[in-house]
Request: fold
Amino acid sequence: MKQKQLLILLILVVVLGAIGYVLRRNQQSTIATGGSPALGKKLFGELPINDVTQISIKQATNELNLAKKDNLWRVPERNDYPANYTDIHDFLIKAKDIKIVQVETVGASQLGRFALAPGQGTNSPIIVDLRDKDGKLIKSFSLGKKHMKKSDRPSPFGEMGDEGFPDGRYVKLNDSDSVALVSEPFTSLEPKPDQWLNKDFFKVEKIRSITTTFPVQTNSWKVSRETESGEWKLADAKPGEQLDSGKTSGLGNALSSPNFSDVAVNSTPEQLGLDKPTVVTLDTFDNFTYTLKVGQKTNENYPLLLSVAAQMPKDRTPGKDEKPEDKEKLDKEFKEKQKKLDEKLSQEKAFEKWTYLVSSWSLEPIMKERSQLMAEKKEEKKEEPKKEESAATTDKKEQAPLAPLPVPAADSSSTNVATPAPASTNSSPSAPK
Reply:
């Protein structure tokens, strides 16, 4: 009887184990639509990233679109300015390979715990749609709350400053009822157009002269130099004007590495101050000419319009007494240099189509007014006139006691000094004999 009961129990254990295994497999199975994603599996399955030509990122009322046009990713919200291909490529590669580390099956009322409930303002999920060239939806998903991991080392700011760092994010496929935790926080996926722009920009090299013309003509100036390391000289210097070498030292590297914050859209020249701009012209020793129109400074940025031109020689002028073997080498070097300059001109002329918001520190050296470049005049010290003695001092000098008169020395033959008798009042002067 005991053996029979034991057999029944073993059968029940096997049956229950089989049921549990089946349920577990069903929970972890990857279903393209309407099911729960599986642990350890790719979140998006076999995502065809080469077919993705449109990316839409939305949160509440904010929206960003990235679109591939003429084989180049662009940002429509910024007048089709080129997008940062590296950022887009990195995102698609991560999306293709990202795996699930945890699954939560929740109802609609619990989505708020994961910041996945729509209509919550800044706490709303970020909805990402991936489409092909025909606009067909490839994949749609929502990004929710970031998963934070606390550091093993204590924070120097205590518990209040030890919030940790993001090491994952809760994601909901928009055709699934489950919430998945993945090991990628996707921090760059935000609907902010300025963060997706390609920030490569023009560079001015080997400056020969700079001319800055302000709307107020008296503030304008021009400087030039004869060599790349030469001293700057002021054109049309007025009497008493002298450049301060400390204030002009940064002009040689002006705009050697400028950057911009954003591209201006939906603004008129009057709104940006570009109807009456400051015009800056930079000529280089490579015969490039950059003309910048700069508007009114706002929030540490200047609106800027750019135009680029170049007058490069087609042929090299041989040097005096140049040897044939040197000519071949120098001609080759000249052609290689000209090719690079042609490519540089072509790339930089592409920047002429947009209006940029350029950080003030990039333009600071060339936006100084004329007086700000001059050496300060040294004032000559004048000798102060001697102060007249006051009346009080004079009175004190007049009232000073007189020095005592010297006493006549005594007669050596007598110890007593004879006192002369007083003259008689009745005596009369004696007549001469």
The chain is about 20% helix and 25% strand.
